[in-house]
Input
Amino acid sequence: MRTQGLLVLLAALTGGGAFPSRASGQATGDQARLVFTVSAGAVGGSRLWSSSPQAVQFIDPADTIALDRRIRSTLAVGFGGAYFPGENVGFTLEGFLIGLGFEDSCRHLFSSGSSAIAEVCQSIQGKKKAATSVILSGGTMFRLNSRKLFSPYGRVNAGLVLSQQSSLRTTGQHLNSTGQIADLFVYSDDHNSRVDPSLALGVGFTAAVAKGYNLRWELRDNITGIQRVTSTIPVAGFVPPHERVFKHLFSMTVGFDVVLERRKGRRY
Output
């Protein structure tokens, strides 16, 4: 009788769902997520380099000018994805269009009376150059309250910035002896494009708007490698001394998430 009672009790426990209930609880904590994000916003600018006095030789003594270049503020667009094997830590891949366009200024320091140099400096002053540089990166993200209405997070991304415009090359225009517009290279560059390292530190939050959809807000410091001029050259028209520096370009973006979730035993 005692053995029969134990068998009945064991059957009741296994048939009554005690063990499946425990397994079900484990499955609830074992949910993985894929998140696909598209975002847009603005990225701030920064001063890049200045060079003075730079000689420009048309006649002797040579005219000298002072040059400044800054990185323009522009729009930012991002496309990315993240995989969260658990509730808090995830792994990300992203493409982030950051621009890296420039705005130049020029001051005529010493004038020998050459109208051509004055025209060159005037053409450089306020000159804006658009660009479409992109950062390709991967990293990690840590989030809290992932199943609440609002979920704050922080991220660290590392990658490469691909630039299709020289940050060194500087040209102006003037009228030549035939009355046609001619280019004058103050600084030249052997490279039309460059690849530099980058790092991004970001904080933000997501807000659930529907099942499987989030709105996202993020503030980010894009620490971007870029080449800058370090000193003047004796004769204009050559590649100037330069070095890689890292500029802090802050961005603020608003995005839209599509969330795919896989529970244990089910596909996404």
